[in-house]
# Entry
Amino acid sequence: MSNRVMVDGRRVSYLYREEPDNEDDSGWRIFSGDETQEYAGNPANFSLYNASTLIEVEPALLEVLSADYPIAFERDEDADDFIEVHSGDDP
# Structure
């Protein structure tokens, strides 16, 4: 998860799931949506969290975290939940 969410307190606005890198990786990549390419390219700006911590910070994630990869969601500001924006090989 981007530190823009967990450290800076920004809301989650975009997330996608890809094939996990290893057995400790769920494949989820979670962003506030205002990260620059430079920010996103720096691994130090991201941290791993367990699902219960993610849901505590952003309860709406409960509805999407069980989705299989590849898939992507963005926040629907009108409904304050997440809508699927892509499923396929390139989230």
Notes: Strands lie at 14-17, 28-31, 71-76, 81-87.
